[in-house]
Amino acid sequence: MPYLSNIIFAIILILAVGYFAKNVKKLIRNIKLGKDTDRTDNKSQRWKNMAMIALGQSKMVRRPVSGFLHVIVYVGFVIINLEVLEIILDGLFGTHRIGLAVLPVSVYGFFIGTFEILACLVFVSVIIFWMRRNVIKLARFWKSEMTSWPKNDGNFILYFEMVLMSLFLIMNATDLQFQVLNSGNTISQFIAPWFSGFPESTSHVIERGAWWLHIIGILVFLNYLYFSKHLHILLAFPNTFYGNLKPKGQMTNVDAVTNEVMMMMDPNADPFAAPAEGTEDDVPEKFGASDVQDLNWVQLLNAYTCTECGRCTSECPANQTGKKLSPRKIMMDTRDRLEEVGKNIDANNGEFKEDGKQLLDDYITKEELWACTSCNACVEACPVSIDPLSIILEMRRYLVMEQSAAPTELNNMMTNIENNGAPWPYNQMDRLNWKNE
Question: For residue 267, what pLDDT is reported?
Answer without folding.
Answer: 67
